[in-house]
Amino acid sequence: MNTTVLATLAATGFTVAFFHAALPTHWLPFVLVARARGWTEGKTMGVAVLAGLGHVALTSLLGLVVAWLGFALDEHYGELFKGVAGGLLLAVGGYFLVQQLRGAGLRHHHLPGSHHHASEACGHEVEKSHIEHELHESPLVESKTGDWAAISGLLVMLTLSPCEAFLPVYLSGVEFGWTGFAVLSVILAVGTLTGMTVFTWLTLRGLARFDLKRFERYEAGMLAAVFGLLGLLMVFIEHGH
After folding, report:
1. Domain range holding 209?
2. Residue 67: left (phi > 0), alpha (psi -120 to 50), or beta?
3. Under a CB-based contact definition with an 8 Å cutoff, are residues 99 and 220 in contact?
4. In the chain, how many domains are there?
5. Closest alpha carbon to 172 in 50, 51, 9
6. pLDDT tens sequence across 111-161
7. How far apart are alpha carbons 60 and 68 in whole angstroms?
């Protein structure tokens, strides 16, 4: 096993997981709902961590499917599979780059009870970010719905929205077998939970100020860079053996 390449892949995976968790959809709902309902810092952080674990669990389950298919294809097609997988990752990166250039950078999770759907174009234009608009329209911030309903909504929102950007990392790790899958799953959990807790805590303390609209707008561009990097890494793995 090429430990240098695996370490590079693990570092890339941590970067993907951390910066995906830095997107406002992964921490801002917890902060705004907590402020509206008067939750303590400890309760807010606990709900965020619980939701993060659900987010990681579903992503890891999907990653297991990706890895299993990758192992089967790698066994039958060997080096050809690595080249095709690398090309596929580069193509996906190109797709997200086109999306970014077309101005379709916003790719966010929708909140339960909001008036938007995944198939709808969103037209928020003023000073608030998209997720802030949805929060103000969602019953999650209304005290009359009860804390359990709000907590459940937050858990469902994040758990059922896996980190799709991490799935190609699992594909890139096929070369390293189940050991690689286990390492990457730990990296996914550490990166995601670190990002979520750091940004939630900083915002609760009033220490973080972000231009959320700009951050949301360039999400597709960030994914394009990640997928492109993973594609090149896959090609490097192929030619390095």
Report:
1. 3-239
2. alpha
3. yes
4. 1
5. 9
6. 544 444 443 444 444 344 555 555 555 556 655 567 888 899 899 989 988
7. 12
